[in-house]
Each structure stands twice: as structure tokens, then as C-alpha cells.
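Researcher: We're teaching a course module on how sequence relates to structure. For the next exercise, students receive a sequence and then see the predicted structure as C-alpha cells, so they can try to spot secondary structure elements on their own. Here is the exercise chain.
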Amino acid sequence: NRVAAAGGAIDVDAETATLLDYGATCYEQSDGLFDLTSGVLREVWSADRRELPDTDTLQRLLARVGWNKVRWQSPRLVFGFRGMEIDFGGVVKEYAADRAATLCAEAGFRHGLIDLGGDIKIVGPHPDGAPWAVGIQHPRSAEAVMATLDLFQGAIATSGDYERFVEIDGRRYSHILSPRTGMPVCGLAGVSVAAPECVVAGSATTIAMLMEDRGAQWLAEVGLPHVWMDQQLRVGGTYA
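Model: And here is the predicted structure for the students to work with:
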């Protein structure tokens, strides 16, 4: 990100290139809502934020946001503006879960799961062949679940406005920020998606949150198994 801040160019390694390729695909599939350059918005949305940022500040930051402002041709990434940033927060933890599960399988493990903060990749079922029972936390009650899923394989990831958020004037603001407005999204309270790979499940949950009121419809169109809860505490999806 030192190169991004200066507005220069950099050649990246193969693993970083894989993540950039995937981020570019998510950008296209989300109509530009999943944007690896949106991390600069966190400058005004820190965990200790107690007042809303003003419009001028948001506009100055938004001028530095936009995957369409970079040129990516593996292995070279070129930043068109000074002060930009690449943020893999929407994919890197899930990618790590997938890689860890692959390493476990290569080492001969056949049973178990990788759980990185609620993003889960199954290595294999229990030794007796039973599935893993995964509880999905209720977005408004830490002691309750909104669904329990039995998984033999694959992965599941969850996103929502209830683990990481700021509260300003009695209103909850999600940590997921729109690259179009600079404001936290407000649509679904929580969403979980199952997929063969954790990185796919994780990016789908993030895109659904970024879609706001269109998130549930988008999930239905994508066709991956999922469950969601909206701000009115209505539950839907294939696991509902």
C-alpha cells in the first residue's frame, strides 16, 4: 500500500495475483459494489467513531476509491491516483481457511474443520461420518441461533452488522461500507452462505450485504445455499 499511496506501479507475487484476480471478478459480479480499493473509507469509520463524517470528507475519500481507477494486468498493478489502498479484508481470511484446509488434507487429515472467526472450511466429516453441526448466530441475540446447518464438506461464511459496528446517536452502523456513498450499508442484518470454497462463501455474504435491500434477491439468483435475516428480523433463504 506504500505504492498505492504514492500512485505508482508494483509487480506482485502469484498468491497476491490470485487474490487480485478474484477481487476483480467480484467487482464485476457485484456491479462495482465489492471493491478492493474501498479500505480508505475506514479512515473516518474507526471503532471509536462517535459522530457521522461530513459530506465533504466522504467525497474526498470517495475520490480515492474505485477498482476502475487501477490497471491490473498480472503481475503488474498500476494505481491511477495518489492515496489509494488495496484492502483484502473481504477475501483474505476466507482464502486462509481454504489454504489451511488444503494443507491439512495434504498432510493426511481426513476429519475436522478450520474455523477462522466464523468463516469455516470443512476438512472432512466426523470420524463416524456424521456432519458438523454449525450454528448461525442470531444477529440481535448473542445467545440464540437463527439456523443450524449440517455440513459434511465445503464451507460456510457469515457477515452482518452485529459483530463489528459503531453506534452513533442510538443507531447501529455496520462495518461494511459502500464504495458508492462512503456510508455503512443498511439492508440485511446478517447472512450466511455455503459454498465449496470459503472464499466464495465469504465474498457472497459481503456482496449480499453491499446489495442492501437487493441482497436477498441477489442471493436467490446466485443459487448458493444461504440464510439471511433483515432489519425487521424476518428470516429467509434456502436454510430458513
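Model: If you want an answer key for the exercise: The mean pLDDT is 94. The chain has two domains: 2-79, 92-228.
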